[in-house]
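Q: What does the assembled structure look like for these inputs?
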Amino acid sequence: MLIVENLRIQFPTAAGVVEAVQDVSFSVGREKLGIVGESGSGKTMTGRALMRLVPAPGLVTARRMSLEGIDLLSASERQMRAIRGRRLAMVLQDSRYALNPVMPVGQQIAEVSQTHTGANAKQAQHRTLEMLEAVHIRDPERVQRVYPHELSGGMGQRVMIAMMLCAEPDYLILDEPTSALDATTRVQVLAVLDELISRRGMGVIFISHDLNLVASFCDRVSVMFAGRIVEHCVASELHLATHPYSRGLLAALPRIHDHQSRLPVMVRDPAWGAASDGAA
Amino acid sequence: MTPAWNSTRWLLSHTPGSKVQARLGRIYMGWLTFRSNPIGMTGLVIVALLVAVAILAPWLSEHTPFTQSLPDRLRPPSHDHWFGTDELGRDIFSRIVHGTRITLLIVCLVVIVAAPLGLVVGSVSGYFGGWLDIVAMRITDIVLAFPRLILALAFVAALGPGLENAVIAIAVTAWPPYARIARAETMTIRHSDFINAARLQGATHFRVITCHVFPMCASSLIIRVSLDMAGIILTAAGLGFLGLGAQPPAPEWGAMVSSGRQFMLDQWWVAAIPGLAILIVSLGFNLLGDGLRDVLDPRSH
Amino acid sequence: MITVEELRVDFRRGEDILNAVAGITFHVTAGESYGLVGESGSGKSSVLLALSGLAKEWSGTIQIAGETPTERRSMDFCRSVQMVFQDPFGSLHPKHTVDSILSEPLSIHGLGDISDRVSAALTEIGLDQSFRFRYPHQLSGGQRQRIAIARALILAPKVILLDEPTSALDVSVQAEILNLLSDIRDRRGLTFVLVSHDLAVVAHMCSRFGVMHLGELVEEMTVERLRTGEPEHPFTRQLIAAARGYEPATS
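A:
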């Protein structure tokens, strides 16, 4: 279980302390939890906090933040290095910035499996090809020799996923893993991910702004607003969400199949941000 | 409610009521960043002192920089002559103080000529590209290929020694780096949407370059110019040292070092004091440039 | 209002010539909103660049507001065709205030009453006068996009080209901007060409649209047909399926 209780992230600035995340609690087992919210809602920071990658001067506090009984808050940087990748991995929004531009992608993937599984060079090479195949890359022999800039967005994202999965993490944080992709490519990448997740029985936190996507991909959904989780619900019942913010987000989506002359505009109530966690 | 507090609030307002307030607010924000940088502030203080000394020169110096007094020649620093006297008995303090005017004059003139020249060449060639760019950049390369002092020497040798010619020579050698910077900045923005939007509104190329491209180049150029000032001062001093810059009896620091060098071992102050002046002022401009980079360079944030 | 026939757009990249648009034909009548949907690299944005005259190399026929767009746009063309860009962070000059961004087109075209027109433009796009002297970095993404829309409107054009105007915005802000665009269109009787990768946005804003795939217009249909009938081209069906979200394999 990945358990987070009362997570709080603060950024001291010249103008005062900015509360990026406040009082966020959730737990993830072997399931897919979606975190939805708009930009600035603190969803990405929440993911980073789990990896202990909140940039300075951010200050992370929580009553509890643990992974399979390991306390992530008090773990030393050395322990964290062993945890990151192997037990808990994160796929970032844009693979072009997350991959090393001057190293062939195959080598980067092999490096990961060497560090995390102690494989020798030959085993790592073999595993790289296996992983590239697993993410449905057609010609893994060729692709592993290619540099990141030669990959298309969809391919890059798949390589990134292959790299994260090859350490066989128990938990995977996906931060907008498909928002840089075209709609049709997105569906393919998600299918690959879904297959691997269910085959390996991983726990997943899927961070996205896309309500339809989260509702259709995840098991449970938490809606974040202004650093707080305003509502938890079962993904398939997201359309039944009760919080006015969740309702507003859903209503604001233009729909293909029923016409509205105007889209309902959300009027933000400052009380939502101040309200108690509102969690079900 | 002190007036200072009010004016700060006015400057930092998120809803400025006029163009002037918006611009001043922006400058004030930059100033706040700059003020928190001790290196930049040190540079600013040195440069401000230089300017103040140049303005107040006649009042600061008891002696004139030109009055010779052979009986008093080569006196060591004393109460009468703070920095001693040179080989003609002139007060070195007064000469240093008046020399600030020459130094500032050279720096300002060079910058006034070279920076706009570089800006125009660089942004025009970066904006249009094609053969114009190729020709302009090859010319820039040619000038860049010569060591600056050597090229300046060649120009002065052709034009004849003198302050104006030194300025022209330094300016001619100083613009290519500015052109390079302006071109690089222009290339990164020339296909940006705000340039496209301006062109769709019917803005002429002239308007796009002057109103949209120039402001984007300004920051990098200001940083580079302020870092370059030290180089300009050194080149000017170098020309003066070789007798090709400001002519005697003008109290130019480089020329003063040059004339003092024969007394270096016994009367060290004659060469060392103007040398030190050159050092401090160059350092001041360099530190100022460093501080400005922290404020203006978008990449450093 | 807009006639595009056999439009080909090529881009020169070094020695290579990339064909972005491979001969497409469509017509837009005055007052209509026409959409172009497709994925990145489908050539939809290149069509818009050609329509605005920003693309250098194209062939075929384009008539827009009675003119053929060329690199040297006439002043009349600028007054009748304007564009709103995708990225609200990149389309406003970072060192110009809202006031100078909005007054520039007016002074280019020698129009008077600049101050009054700027403040009227701000009112029209739903921002109050306190925004007038702010810099873009002091605005949110939605506010910037409003300013970009105001800039496009200030010359009172007949046609507005919209290049993914809401794809960089949050869902709730997207709704506000789409509402603003439809209000303005109804009030001023504008003709829109909207390019987007999001079928739902196009279906919401347009009455008719074309689906672009690999430089070709593979299907053209009305929004009513999209809602009632089945699209013919397999790619269109893929797009519709993708818009619904992720559907786990049934196996």
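Residues 183-200 of chain A form the longest helix (18 residues).
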